[in-house]
């Protein structure tokens, strides 16, 4: 490999980010070269055993455990690489969001993400992409609140409302447009937004 070839620059960039990362060709376009050229470089690095192929066009630089060998890359990393490759928005599923906010103790067995693109699976079904519902922008506070209320029920206790306020951006919660939500959810949305009913 030449000192400043595209292959060298890509490999240097991969190593500088550290192990446990997932990526696609778009992750390295800033280094010069076309997406096709970067894809070829990644394919050659995979063939040489320097990186691991997770799915078509998705690669990783996994951590290595001294006793057990390669450690699978976190699902979140795979999801982010897939979103970048496809140019889609992502949002964790309602069950994952409810768990992260402390509204549910159920830990999803598979990581499910809502996407603006088509459905897919990655990492032997560890990561699942499902088409998001129409009407709300994925990743937006409104979209997250809608998904939470669909999953948890339209009414939240005072403690649950406080958890959501702490977990989501409070300024954005205050700007929620209640009229965008179904009638059955509006009282809870007003409560989350801090608007007296």
How much of the sequence lies in strands comes to 15-25%
Number of helices: 8
* Structure classification: alpha+beta
DSSP E strands, number: 9
Shape: elongated
Element order: H for helix, E for strand = HEHEEEEHEHEEEHHHH
Please state the average pLDDT score: 86
Stretches with pLDDT under 50, minimum 5 residues: none
Largest sheet: 4 strands, mixed
In total, the number of domains comes to 2
Cα-atom Rg, whole angstroms? 20 Å
Strand order of the largest sheet: 6-7-9-8
Gap between N and C termini: 67 Å
What percent of the residues sit in helical stretches (DSSP H or I)?
40-55%
Describe it for me?
- The chain has helices spanning 6-17, 35-47, 75-86, 94-100, 141-152, 158-167, 170-174, 186-193; strands spanning 21-23, 52-55, 58-61, 63-65, 69-71, 90-92, 111-115, 120-122, 127-131.
- It is an alpha+beta fold and 197 residues long.
- It folds into two domains: 6-74, Winged helix-like DNA-binding domain superfamily/Winged helix DNA-binding domain (Arc Repressor Mutant, subunit A, Orthogonal Bundle), CATH 1.10.10; 88-197, no CATH class.
- Strand 2 (52-55) and strand 3 (58-61) form a beta hairpin.
- It is elongated, with a radius of gyration of 20 Å.
- The relative contact order is 0.10.
Q: Summary?
A:
This protein folds into 2 domains: 6-74, Winged helix-like DNA-binding domain superfamily/Winged helix DNA-binding domain (Arc Repressor Mutant, subunit A); 88-197, no CATH class.
Break the fold down into its secondary structure elements and pairings:
Blueprint: H1 6-17, E1 21-23, H2 35-47, E2 52-55, E3 58-61, E4 63-65, E5 69-71, H3 75-86, E6 90-92, H4 94-100, E7 111-115, E8 120-122, E9 127-131, H5 141-152, H6 158-167, H7 170-174, H8 186-193
Parallel strand pairs: 7-9
Antiparallel strand pairs: 1-3, 2-3, 4-5, 6-7, 8-9
């Amino acid at each position: 490999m030449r000192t400043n070839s595209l292959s060298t620059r890509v490999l240097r960039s991969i190593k500088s980010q550290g192990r446990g990362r997932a990526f696609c060709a778009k992750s390295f376009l800033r280094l010069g070269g076309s997406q096709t050229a970067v894809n070829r470089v990644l394919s050659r690095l995979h063939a040489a055993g320097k990186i691991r192929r997770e799915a078509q066009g998705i690669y990783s630089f996994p951590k290595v455990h001294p006793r057990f060998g390669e450690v699978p890359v976190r699902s979140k990393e795979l999801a982010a690489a897939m979103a970048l490759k496809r140019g889609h928005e992502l949002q964790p599923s309602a069950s994952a969001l409810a768990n992260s906010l402390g509204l549910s103790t159920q830990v999803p067995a598979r990581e499910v993400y809502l996407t603006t693109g088509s459905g897919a699976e990655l990492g032997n079904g560890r990561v699942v992409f499902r088409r998001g519902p129409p009407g709300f922008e994925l990743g937006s506070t409104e979209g997250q609140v809608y998904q939470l209320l669909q999953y948890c029920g339209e009414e939240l206790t005072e403690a649950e409302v406080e958890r959501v306020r702490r977990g989501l951006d409070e300024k954005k919660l205050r700007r929620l447009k209640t009229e965008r939500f179904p009638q059955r959810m509006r009282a809870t949305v007003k409560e989350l937004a801090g608007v007296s009913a």
